[in-house]
Amino acid sequence: MELHDVWFVLIAVLWIGYFFLEGFDFGVGVLTKLLARDRAERRVLINTIGPVWDGNEVWLLSAGGATFAAFPEWYATLFSGFYLPLLLILVCLIVRGVAFEYRHKREEERWQTNWEHAIFWTSLVPAVMWGVAFGNIVRGVKIDGQKEYVGNLFDLLNPYAILGGLVTLTLFTFHGAVFAALKTVGDMRMRARALALTLGLITAALDLGFLTWTQLSHGDGSSLVAMIVAVVALVGAVVAIKAGREGWSFALSGVAITAVVAMLFLTLFPNVMPSSLNEEWNLTVTNASSSPYTLKIMTWCAGVATPLVLLYQSWTYWVFRKRIGTQHIADAH
Amino acid sequence: MDLALAPETLARWQFGITTVYHFLFVPLTISLAALTAGLETAWVRTGKEKYLRATKFWGKLFLINIAMGVVTGIVQEFQFGMNWSDYSRFVGDVFGAPLAFEALIAFFFESTFIGLWIFGWDKLPKKIHLACIWMVSIGTILSAYFILAANSWMQHPVGYRINEERGRAELTDFWHVLTQNTALTQFFHTMTAAFLVGGAFMVGIAAFHLARKKHIPVMRTSLRLGLITVVVAGLLTAVSGDLLGKVMFKQQPMKMAAAEALWDGEAPAPFSVFAYGDVEKGHNKVAIEIPGLLSFLANDDFESYVPGINDVNKSEQERFGPGDYRPNIPVTYWGFRWMIGFGMASLAIGLIGLWLTRKKFLLPPGLRTGEDEVPNLVLFRNKVLNPRLTKWYWIFALWTMGFPLIASSWGWIFTEMGRQPWVVYGVLRTRDAVSPSVSQGEVLTSMIVFTLLYAVLAVIEVKLLVKYVKAGPPELTEADLNPPTKIGGDDRDADRPMAFSY
C-alpha cells in the first residue's frame, strides 16, 4: 500500500468522522422543528449538541485541509467545480454557527424565533447538499483533460445525486433522533424514540435504493460487503431503538454512516473524482496526489494528531454525559 | 457574463474582503483568550471575586467575538480551491501541509476546549476548567503560527523545488518552511500586534465604565491589565515590525521601496513622511523626508544604499522577463503609514495612561485610591488632572479600541498588495493563480453574497458587543462560587439548571 493509498483511506476516515459527528448535530438541528413542541424543548435539543458541535465541524475543516495537502488536484477541481453548491454550504455553516452562539443573547421574541428558523434550515440544507456532492463525485462529473470541471450547476442536479442528498438528510436526521433519545429525559425521550423509529424505516428504504443503485452501477465485491454492513447496521439500529436500547441504536446508526461513506470511497478507488467525459481524464490517487515527501510528513501529523483528537473529544462527551430536560434550562441569562 | 476586468480582479477583491473581515476577529480572539485565561488564573490562585467577575465579563465578549472568527474562518479554508484553483494545484504540495496541520492540531484544540469552557462551569473542577481556556489559547496561537508559516512561504518561498513534469512546486524541507526567518518574524509581529488589539479593547471598555464610575473594582483591574498589555505589546510590535522590515528589505526590496515611494536608489536613503507623486512617470512631486532613516530601517546604519522602485523593477525584468513588477504604489505607501500610525497612536495612549494611573511609583499618598475608587489621573507630581482633561483622556482611551484593528488591517493590505504582481514571490503570478473554470459571474455572485452576509453579521455582532459591554460584569451566583469537585458535575441536585445553556 503506497502513501497515496493511505491518504485515500485517511481522507475517507476524516469524512466518516465528520458525517458521524456533525451528522447527528445536523439531525438535531432538523429535529428542532420535527420533535420539539415549544421553545423550551427546542432549547433542550440545541443544548444536547451545545458543547460539541464546534469540535464536530472541525472534522470538515480537517477533511478540506488534508485534501488540499494530500490531493491538491482533487481539492482544486472539486471546490472550483462545485462552486455555487459549496457557496451555499458555506453560507449555511456561517449562519448556523452564529445562530447557536447568538440565539440566547437577546430576549426579544423575534430575535430568538429568527435564529431558530436559521438553525433548522442551515442544518437541513448542508445535510442534503453533502449527499448531492458525494453522489456526483461517485457518479462522475464533466472533467476535461486539464482536470477542470466543465459542466454547469444543473449537471449536478441529477436523480442519483438527489437521491444521495435525501439519503444523507434522512440518515443524519435518524442519527440525530437516536442521539436525542440518548441525551434527553422524560416525555421528549419517548417521543424521540418513536420519531426515530419512523425515520429509521424511511432511511432504511431510501438507503437500500441508493446503495443498490450505487452497487449496480459502480460497485465491486468490497463495496458489496460495505453495503451489506450498512443495511444490516441500519436495520439493527431501528430494532434497537424499538427495543429502547438507545446506546446500541446510536452505535449502530454510527456504523451505518461509516459503512455508507466507506462504500462510496470503495466504489471510487483508485479514482478520487472520475470524469464522465473520458476515463483517461479521471482524477486518481496517483495523478491528483502530492509528492511522497509531503505525504510522509502528513502521515506523521495525522498519525499523532488524530488519535489524540479522538481521545480528548471522547472525553468531552464523557464530561457532558448527563441527560438533560426542560428543567435543566435556565429561563434567562 | 463576462466583465471587462482582468480575470483575477474580482477574485482578489473577494479574497481581500473575506480575509480582512476575518482578521478583524482573529487578533481579538488570540489576545482575549490569553487575557481571559490570565484573569481566570488570578481567580483560581487568589479566590478574589473581582477576578471571577472579570473573567465572566471578558469571557462573554470573547465568545461573541470568537463565534464570528470561527465561522468566517471556514471560508478561508475553502476559498483557495474555489477561486484560486490554479494556485491550489501549483502550491498544494507545499502550502497545503501547514493548512492541514492547522486544522488537525490547532482547530481541534480550540473548538473542542472552547465547548468545554463555555458549558463546563458546573461540570468541571476549577483547575480543569481553567486548563480548558489555556488550551483554547494555545490552539489560537498554534493556528496563527501555521497559517503565518504558510503565508511566509508566499512572501519568501523556501524548502521546495519545481517539478517541471507535474508543473508544480514540491516540498523538500518542511522544517525550513516552518522555521525560516520570514515565518518567525512575521509570527512575532502578528502576535504582538494581536495583543495590542486585545489590550486596547480592554482599555477602551474599562475607560468607558470608569468615566461613568461604574463597576469600579473589575474595571480598575481591567484597565491596568489592558494598559500594561498595550504598552508591552505596543513596544514589542515596534521592535518586531523593525525586524520584519529588515527581513523584507532583503527578501522583497520592491515592497519596501514602494512602502517609501523611493523611486530611485539612494545612499543614504531617507524615510518619507509624506509623498505625492506620479506613478506613470515614476517620481514624487512632493516629498517630506527624514534623511538617513530608511538606511537605518533597512540595514541598521545611516549611510547604506537602498534600491528604489525603478531599480528593482529593472532588475526583476532582467530576472523574470519583460513586464511591470511594481505593486500599487499609493496603496502600499499609505498602507504602510496607516499601519504604523494607528498602531503607534494606540501605544502612545497606553503609555500616557500607564503614567497617569501609576500606583505607588512616584505618587504621593494623598492621591492613591482604593480598590473601589476610580483611579486619579495624575500628570504632574501632586496634582490630579482637571475634570475636562480627565474626561478627554477617557474619550481617547475609548477611541483607541479601534486603532490597532485599523493598523492590522492595513498591515495585511500592505504586505499582500506590496507583493503584487506575485502571489508566490518570484514563482507564481497572481493572474496565473485564479480558477479557469469559474466564471466572473460566479465570482461576483459569491462576492456579493459574502459581502452582504458579512455586513449584516457585523451589525448584529457590534450591537451584541455594545449590549454586553454596557451590561457590565455579572453578579456572581452561589453556583459560581462553589464549582464542582468532580468531573461531570456534582450529584447534589439532579434537576438543577445548567450554569450555562444556549
What does this protein look like?
The complex is a heterodimer of chains A (333) and B (502). By secondary structure, chain A is an all-alpha fold. Chain A has 11 helices and 2 strands, in the order ααααααααααββα. Chain A has helices at residues 3-34, 39-49, 53-70, 72-81, 83-102, 109-139, 159-183, 186-218, 221-242, 246-268, 292-319; strands at residues 271-273, 283-284. Chain B is mainly α and 502 residues long. Chain B is built from 15 helices and 6 strands. The longest helix of chain B has 40 residues, at 7-46. The radius of gyration of chain B is 25 Å and the shape is globular. At the A-B interface, α2, α3, α4, α5 and α11 of A face α2, α3, β2 and α14 of B.
Question: What would you say about this model in short?
Answer:
Chain A has 333 residues and is an all-alpha fold. Helices cover 76% and strands 2% of the residues of chain A.
Relevant terms:
heterodimer, A: 333 residues, two-stranded antiparallel sheet, B: mainly alpha, two-stranded antiparallel ribbon, 15 helices, 6 strands, 66% helix
Form type of chain B? globular
Which strand order do you get reading across the main beta sheet of chain B? Answer: 1-2
> What string, H for helix and E for strand, traces the elements of chain B in order?
HHHHEEHHHHEEHHHHHEEHH
Number of strands of chain A: 2
Report the radius of gyration of chain A as a whole number of Å: 20 Å
User: Strand portion of chain A, in percent?
Assistant: under 5%
Task: Enumerate how many helices of chain A there are, as a single number.
Answer: 11
Number of helices of chain B: 15
Major sheet of chain B:
2 strands, antiparallel
Strand order of the largest sheet of chain A: 1-2
End-to-end C-alpha gap of chain B? 44 Å
The dominant shape of chain A is globular
Q: Residue share in helices of chain A?
A: over 70%
Biggest β-sheet of chain A: count, sense, barrel? 2 strands, antiparallel
Distance between the termini of chain A: 55 Å
Oligomer: heterodimer
Computed over alpha carbons, the radius of gyration of chain B is: 25 Å
